[in-house]
Amino acid sequence: MIDQTKFIYQRPSNVYFTKEITSDAVLKLYDRIKLQNPGKIAIKLHFGEKGNKNFAAPELSKALALRTDATLVDSNVLYVGPRRYTDSHIALAKEHGFDFAPICILDGDEEIEIPVQGTKYYDKIRVGSHFKDFDSYIVFSHCTGHVMAGFGAAVKNVAMGMAAVGGKMQQHSSSIPLIDGDKCISCGECIDGCAQNAISIDPVVIDPDKCVGCGKCIGICPQQVYDVNWGSTQSSLFVERMVEYAKGMLDDKPMVFITVLANISPDCDCDGHAREPFVDDIGIIASTDIVAIDKAAFDLVARKTKKENVFTELHRNTDGRPQYLYGNQIGLGNMDYKLIELD
Predict the structure, then answer these.
(1) pTM for the structure as a whole
(2) 337 pLDDT higher than 50
């Protein structure tokens, strides 16, 4: 349970809103939140899983990318599919229409650790080495439901979307990876890649006293011997871990946030069989405050559906509100916001 007496209240953060869902509207919103000296800019997008039809249309971010001379970025995923490996991830992004700017997979080469302070689960988080290549980030999110997070928007796009494979493992799992030893070809890639010397093969065994749950074996095994123990982490713990991951990245790099409230499916854009949207399109919002923009997204969906927490109805035993409640508690942002609609 979150101690509400610890919440940090300041004057309201501005969240800008437009019902217009176009690239021109995106540019108008960006003009309200842009950094004065952004340096080399990356736009964090979700390129959409193969088969997914709901991800934010590439046309919405194209003019923004061209104006800011930005690189489009994402990180590889834990599960099996084209977005697990860098080359096929980039190929799928281009297939989905994100071919108008350079693409960088942040953990395409290696993982690094960066510090995080004021948190209870981590003192370091795992990101891709290319995270450091950029001076600032525009976090371009698509609001959806999510089976473990309750809902996904800016916090999830940063925390899960920008974490390296090992970081995703840290957030998802409370135990060592699952093993399918019959797939092993004894290539030794996992042994060479395990910094903890926790793996042996013939047969495949992970020493639970040495494993730290980094997930590197999952990412490097060519035979997909290892997998995430998806059910090992409770939803509330998962959400708080996500928030702490977001804090580590926001403490390291300046970021601004744009969230699309259209094609809002019960399922994440990582789902290749995501269900149809459950609510009519709402618009686009933007802010310099990640907590404020996620709360605004949640509130706008609640207002449109006339349901206090429709995401919990869609996914039982999940609650997305700790993303902004816990985020506020650890100083990630402000829950008090002013919604400013643009003409």
Answers:
(1) 0.85
(2) yes
